[in-house]
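User: what does the whole thing look like in 3D?
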Amino acid sequence: GAVVSQHPSRVICKSGTSVKIECRSLDFQATTMFWYRQFPKQSLMLMATSNEGSKATYEQGVEKDKFLINHASLTLSTLTVTSAHPEDSSFYICSPRGTGEKLFFGSGTQLSVL
Amino acid sequence: ELKVEQNPLFLSMQEGKNYTIYCNYSTTSDRLYWYRQDPGKSLESLFVLLSNGAVKQEGRLMASLDTKARLSTLHITAAVHDLSATYFCAVDLKGSGSRLTFGEGTQLTVNP
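Assistant: Here's the predicted 3D structure for the full assembly of 226 residues, as C-alpha cells:
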C-alpha cells in the first residue's frame, strides 16, 4: 500500500520559535495535500489544502501567515508553524491525495510549545 | 456547511457484545469513510463507502451507508478488547475533492 512519511513525530519547542513539519508521499504522487489539526480528545479539523505549485487554501479561522504551507513537489509538502505559542500545541496530520478511493494519512506530529 | 455527527461519543461495552455507532451528515456527499485511531497515533483506514446501500465487512466490523437518510453505521459484532479505540466517520463533501469533514469521534472501550 501507499506509504506516507511525516516528520518529526514529536517536537517540543519554546514559545516564539518556528517548527517545520514534513510530509512525504513515498510511492505515489500527491497533487493535493491536506493538513489537519487535532486537539486532545477532539476530532480532526482541516486547516488547509495545498496543490502542488500553487498557494494553499486555508480554512476559516486558520492564519495563513502563522501556518506556512509549501507544496513544491508532488512528493513533499511542509507545514511551518511560525512563532509558535502554547495554544498551537496540537497533533498535526498530513493527508496526501493520490488517485483511487482511499485516502492516506501521515503518522502525525505531536507539537508541544512551552 | 457540512455537519457530521456521531453517536454515541463514548461507548463502554463488554467483550462478546454487539453494538452500533451511528454517523449522520447534513448534505450530499461523495464518499463516507470510517477510521480508527489509537491514542497518540494517526488514523487507520477501515472502510470507504461509495454508494447508497454499500455494505462492507472486515472481521468484527461492518459498515453500511444509506445516502437517502444521510446515515452510516459501524456495527461491532462480539466485541473484543483489541477493538478499544476511537472511531471516526468522515464525509467527503460532494465536489470538494476529498476535503474531509470528520465526526466528533466515538471512544470505544471494550471491557474483559
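In plain terms: Chain A touches chain B at residues 6, 32, 34, 42-46, 49, 93, 95, 97, 101-108, 110 (CB under 8 Å). The beta strands of chain A are 4-7, 10-13, 19-25, 32-38, 44-51, 57-58, 67-73, 76-81, 90-97, 109-113.
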